[in-house]
Amino acid sequence: MSSQRRRRPRVSFEPINRERVLSRLLAATRHRVTVIAAPAGFGKSTAIGQFVEGRDSILAFVKLRKGGADVRGFLETLIRALEEQGSGSTARRTESLSTVDVQPGLDALIDTALVKLARASGIVVIDDLHLAREDNVIDLIVDLVERTPASVHWLLATRSISDLPLATWLAQGISDLPIDDQDLRFTQAEVRDVADSWQLSLDSEAVPTLAAFADGWPAAISLMLAAMVGSGKSRESFVAARDLFYGYLAQQVFDPLDEADRRFLLDTSLLSEVSVDVLGRAGYDDAASTLIRLQRQTALIKHVSDRTYRYQEVFGEFLRFKLELAGLNAYRAALRKTAEIFESGDLLADALTMYAKAQDFDNVERILVGRGRALIDRGFVEEIRKLLFSERFESSDGKLELLGLRAEVLEKLGRFDASNAVFESLVRRSSGDQRAEFAQKFAVSLINQYRHVEACRVLSSIRPLSITDSRLRCRVGATLAAAQSASGKHKLAMQSIANSLNLACHLNDPSLEASVLNSVAFVAIRGGNLERAQEYGTRSVAVALESGLHDLAARAYSTLVSVSSEAGDHGAARENCLAMLKCAELAGDRAVERVALMGLCDLAAEAGDERGLDQLESRLDRFEGRADPRWQEALLPAKAMQLAWHGKYRDASELLSDSAYSHANLEQQLLRRTEIALYSAAAGQWDSAKLKLEEIESLESSLDAGRRFSSRLVKASLLVAITCVLVGQPRQAVERLRALERRRLLKTTGLYVLWRVAMIFAASSTGTADDEFETALADLRSTGMGGFALLMKSLVKTRRGVLHKFSALTPTEMRILRTLTKGRTTKSIARELDRSPGTIDTHVKSIVRKLGCEGRIEAAQIAREHGLV
Question: What are the E-state strand segments in 296-388?
């Protein structure tokens, strides 16, 4: 197979006149020292050539040659250039010579140069300073700068400023900031100027494409334009330009380096950042000195931080291109080498990616099995997911460790049905410590789903004393304590957590410590010890964050949210919820992220922040698995309250009544029935509301006698009292409210003010709002419970509207309405009131009209539902 190459016409390149660069040079040369520093191909020499052309102020123009210059050669070249200028000849570029063994000595040469410069006035130009063979050349130039008069200006062009005392010169005011690669990059206008000079017609899209291709690198763009001459296919010219430019980099930068330096660059070319510390752990003991040397020689390596570097983008692409040219096996070997570097620096996610690209799945599996859980805790959920659900590992059902990892990833993504099924399978198929580990992880997942009873059931099959791994035994005990506490088994929970805490104190494991501390805080909340909960929750956050365990930090913040809410500190609750959200995002834990957003929804609803509630719900709608009934049910209370603010009680009641909520514990069931009862009563559905009140009474009696009344249960009891008022049972409402006060359950300002609002509402004979009630609502808003203030205002408004209709009835109509509620007929009412049936019918029609209902049956129902007759 043969191919013919199209012969491209020879291009005579005439550099464009770059006015902005020349202006920058002119401004810079007002200082005694001007430095131009940029990599090869940025047009340093071209810019200097255009600048000095026609200027009489040039004292000497010295250009170092590729062979390098030593001190003697440089001095002789400089003196000769000064002598030529002194003789009146036009300044021209004088190339430095190698050392020649002639007299006079170096001191005499230096004195000669200083004498000539002392009587001079103008600019000394030194180009390609980076080619100096000896560091003493640069030291000499620095010395000459300091010892020459202010009438002598120095223009130095180099690829690197690392050997120049630029900071000192800037501080002394004798130098401006260097003219660097950012100043010398081609703008889009300059790209078009170059194309026009070559008579190339470019469309509007080609110019920005060219500029972006090489990030404004003049040499790359010039070579690309050269490749486009005579070619009508821009894609082909791009490839040709890349090859030309890469060839230029090879000749100017890469090939002149020592073999060891070239190997170092290729070995590290796949790193996004080159860390001296990471390379040191990987066996590159001289990485620091190598990078410093290469930075000076190439000027294509950026110093990111104290011990971290980054290859310039185009240079990095060139190095990776060199790797690819070596063949597939060599490229994969380089990928494995890079993976080993990452792994030695504990950059496991990056190592996994490189091993996968190298098709080295044995090492991928080794890291997944050994360190996969740690990677998930660090937030690399998506990276683990891509590998576990790839074709290579999709069929690995026989490897329990990988299945366990898959279950955890599914849980993090909020796909609980799938994760629960995998966990159940793992618990059945495993034994010993491995079974205990899977059971513990499954229980944690169930707790996160508020399925505490099931979590206890899963762990009940595990005997802690049979677990040989101390860390695992500690985690199982802590998880069991959390599940027991949430299920109301506080004494058992205290015993379990005490054992785990005692064990954790003897183990040096930050992840375990953070987890156990959080469990202690969780149990303390359930036990009513908020001070202890705050202390241990805060310690858990600190340990987790210090170790970069954002997943555990998010869960600890979740516990602190509960502490703040229980204490009635809504501001702190919101701050902790936001911190929880941030940590969950860093960890890539979508499940906890969603829980944080739902927590913010609850806080927004409680505060009466309708706009914030809408924005949060919009964010939640973008989550995968948003249609999951359990997640939807968790949002229902906030949505229902929002409907109630606008008087849509029937909609709120139906929204909550349609939910299954089958996995809820007794406390959650009680809270849900309280909300349904309240909205049903407000909607006039008294029969339904009374049924719910009976269910609530039954649930309250089912709760353990020794159970601590959480703030949520106190709020529920207050809402039950308000419901009693709505269904015409104000006496029962007042009795409930007095019982709460007598038992000293109103432990926060917000609860006390809500209690006062409910008491005023119950004591009001008319149900209308008065000054005292409005004052109480204002106090309620000030405690961060504006949502309840909106709810009570809506209830009063609705109740007032109904009362207004009843106030329009005459005494006789009110008497007839009372008899209608007892199911009496027109004739029986007529006999009782000693009126004719026709007169009674006339009164009934008036009642129906004034109440705005369809007939006598509905009128009687309205009267019964509002407890006014």
Answer: 301-305, 308-311
Beta-bridged to residue 94, according to DSSP, are 62
* Bridge partner residues of 310 (DSSP): 302
Judge if the upstream peptide bond of residue 9 is cis by omega within 30 degrees of 0.
Answer: no
Number of alpha carbons in the 13 Å side-chain half-sphere of residue 551: 25
Q: Which two tokens stand for residue 336?
A: 């494995």
Please classify residue 698 by burial: count the beta carbons closer than 10 Å to its beta carbon, then call 0-12 exposed, 13-18 middle and 19+ buried: exposed
How many other CB atoms are there within 10 angstroms of residue 625's CB atom?
A: 17
pLDDT of residue 442: 93
Distance CA 780, CA 774 (A): 10
Exposure string for 411-445, b = 16+ CB within 10 A, e = fewer: bbbbbbebbbebbeebbeebeebbbbbbbbbbbbb
Distance, C-alpha 574 to centroid of its chain: 18
CA dihedral of 392, 398, 401, 406, whole degrees rounded to 10: 60
Residue of 351, 324, 317 lying closest to 337 (CA atoms): 351
CB 671 within 8 A of CB 459: no
First-to-final CA distance of the chain: 104
Angle between helices 188-197 and 206-213 (to 10 degrees): 110
What pLDDT digit, counting tens, does each position of 81-106 carry?
888 765 544 444 555 443 334 446 78
Instruction: Write out pLDDT tens, residues 236-283.
Output: 666 776 777 788 888 888 888 889 999 999 989 888 888 898 888 888
Give 531: exposed, middle or buried? Use CB within 10 Å, 0-12, 13-18, 19+. Answer: exposed
